[in-house]
Predict the structure.
Amino acid sequence: MVGFCIFAAAQCLSALKEQKQGLRRFEFTEPYMGTMFKIVLYASDESSALEASRVAFNRIAGLDHIMSDYQPSSELMRLSELAGGPPTRISDDLYGVMSAGQEIAQKSDGAFDITIGPVVRLWRRARRQHELPESARLAQALELVGHQKLRLDAKARTAQLLKPGMLLDLGGIAKGYAADETLRVLKGYGIDRALVAAGGDIAVGEPPPDMEGNGWTIAVASLDSPAQRPNRYVALHNAGISTSGDLEQHVEINGTRYSHIVDPKSGRAITGRVSVTVIAPDDTTADALATAVCVLGLERGLKLIQSIPETRALICQAKNSELQCSDWHFPATRDQSHDSPIVRMEQVSQRFPGL
């Protein structure tokens, strides 16, 4: 899980600077996509902040209606109902998020796959009933999964699901896309100093006035002690950060812990404790990559991350009662520049003792 914080000490030191710039801090929260979306922004006055946030939340609501697999009337579900038929023209938003998903599917060798819907449905029932999916039904569902079975036409803006019964699931990318789009809406209102948090997904724009040259301070919860104060922080601007894992969504069946994240190739929910936090230039990419790395595991996941520019990951997994974590693998030079979205990673409590 990732969280965000602007430390009180920094705020006190910078109050004068905010006043000089004529900017004030505002926060707004509303529920969408099965989680709470929180917008933190800096604007010159309350009316401007209210207007921009209202339009931003309307944008999120519209995306929810397009991409939800819980709403039978959503554009995504209507497209799934046409599985096995001819190419279907879809909206720019649905095409954009599906295209991004297909790109990550190819880069991850299918570890991320938006055609995973039939298998995810079985595992949702498994978590509710506390019983594993039947092997025969799982095998049938797997026949409908595979990113190669989804065809997109960029010129015609069409999508085609090649086999009847296919079902799309954007749960591993939709919130990241919505967070990115929220930032874009706010920028259209002249608000570029903003943060959008949607559960484990966070998109950030320019840093707050008090953090000029640095970034928004994001806290990453520990896998071994999630209730305690985080000891890992990263300062970001114009980037996305996403955490996936089984910390909040899992079920234990017959003594084995199963995550809500499913391997598209085996059809099995991943087991054991795992947490992956990915930083990328945008939250759409970070969201999808975090899921893919959870499936791939530590070694293969790091290889994927290292193959994609401007992307970093912290991977933690519990094995034999021991916690193993990767390094963020920050390069020594680029991340010290304001041109890089990743400004620094350190224990902020050392800078502000007693907080």
Residues 4-16, 330-338, 342-355 have pLDDT under 50 and may be disordered.
